[in-house]
Amino acid sequence: xxxxxxxxxxxxxxxxxxxxxxxxxxxxxxxxxxxxxxxxxxxxxxxxxxxxxxxxxxxxxxxxxxxxxxxxxxxxxxxxxxxxxxxxxxxxxxxxxxxxxxxxxxxxxxxxxxxxxxxxxxxxxxxxxxxxxxxxxxxxxxxxxxxxxxxxxxxxxxxxxxxxxxxxxxxxxxxxxxxxxxxxxxxxxxxxxxxxxxxxxxxxxxxxxxxxxxxxxxxxxxxxxxxxxxxxxxxxxxxxxxxxxxxxxxxxxxxxxxxxxxxxxxxxxxxxxxxxxxxxxxxxxxxxxxxxxx
Length: 294
Fold this sequence. Notes:
The protein has helices spanning 2-20, 43-54, 113-116, 129-141, 156-174, 186-189, 193-199, 219-228, 241-250, 269-279, and strands spanning 25-30, 35-39, 57-63, 66-71, 74-84, 92-98, 104-111, 144-155, 204-212, 283-285, 291-293. By secondary structure, it is an alpha+beta fold.
């Protein structure tokens, strides 16, 4: 019974997080005619919100400070108190919401597993981390783009105290004098980092998502022809190692005959070259323009 109740709560929070913690906006919704049109800067977010609508969890409207969701026919109105936007540095996004007539505030967060998992509260019930990490690795091997979803529940008073601290930091930041040509310190560039981290901690894991990022038509053939023409091709990505490697195979950037070297992050150039020397006698670039060590 307890297990069933937990799964029900996780299902509820998972899809609310999908709808609330995103930049997706409603273009057109007609429940009677089963029309759900959404727009957003992230195709992944749009795909997930569309998937939620097929489960009768429908994002009806979203305006600054307010969001309305139909949850299996029940209309839920959420007050959006604050949003901590996604950035390439933070690799996560968080939104603080409250339902009317309650004093409970819920912060929903979603982001890379490297950011969400280390900030889980070890004292509360979480989905099995072992199985979650195993699933994340399998999804990445298939070339799927993954995200972890989490939440933190707090009183409205706790939120207000945190919001006051944030507002003071914003006022202080706006009074900073910038000296042309001298730049600014790294702390000044992101003066709210420590304040954000105070809340984006002690999370309860509520699920993970995996979305297929399909290649455009003819991409593998084009890259293969570029290789044949002697043109070098680089792929720049922020994906996980397993995801990036799988996409490399899918788009024929590398093949099963390619010698692939996995270099851990944080190594210096000298350390990388030492690994090459230790593991090889000769470094050569072959006619197919695939980097190999023999």
